[in-house]
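ok so for the tutorial part 2 we go from a plain amino acid sequence to predicted structure tokens. step 1 is just haveing the sequence, like this:
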Amino acid sequence: MAVNPSILRYFSQAVSRALSGTAAAINEIRLRTGQPLAVTLSDKTSFLTANGCLTEMPERALKITADDIRHCFEAVCRYSVHSCQNQINNGFVTVSGGHRAGLCGTAVYSPDGRIENIKYINGINFRIAGEAISAADEIMQRIMSDGLKSIIVFGAPCSGKTTILRDLCRQVGDKYPVSLIDERFEIASVSGANVNNRVGANTDVFSGFTKPDGINTAVRVMSPRMIICDEIGSDEDISALKKARTSGVRIAASVHSGTVEELLTGKVFSLIEEGMFEYAVYIRDRKISGIFTAQELYRLSKEHIKGASMRRI
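step 2 — the prediction. this is what the tokens look like for a chain of 313 residues:
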């Protein structure tokens, strides 16, 4: 079977049987109340029948029940929903191995406007994580061979950015002091005080910290040569990274940008223009699709702006 047997315990008997019966390489398992069991493969989304056959016809697929959702939700929370409340409030629960269960349901807001709970869970996206040893070899050879450089890793959701960052952290962290800001517990997969994934012998792991808090604390107390974090984007993230960079710390981070053009027109490109990142690595279909220097991106940006101006004439 292609699905790791260790994750089957998070699913009901019917869903586990379907997953056990497939040989497909599945990246995501999607449960929605009253809807067919859907799975995301490397290049498409499909459905899964009760005996594990892939189908493009939703009416032939196993239909997910409210009990299937309840079983999965309770299992990923280790049958202690209260202990996972902070993660639930952020819309996900991360389990051993770095797998992440994204949650859909009804938001409950506190008087000050914060989400304090998600109830009536009706959908779960179980994203399967995996260590890919040597996934960052090309980055280490082409970018880090003569010393640490700051890089931004970009690609569409579920393209493999976190997998690349995890192996990069392992390789850099075996050579230099690294601080990993693992806000969603996906990279190091910390459980209690145990780091379950290989992230480097010299890596200090900040799990569950917001990126700004983790970055600022790491710079203050751990003297890292590099800070690694996933999915930056907020103004607070950017402000913290700027402070770290001015302290001489190198940065490796990821951002959602499905194409080079999206990167050039997004908020993060201003950081490249300001010199924070020296390289950008494009991930597509779980592989490194391109490595760009900051200078190459400047040129592409100017061409993009010129082309846009010509189209308006």
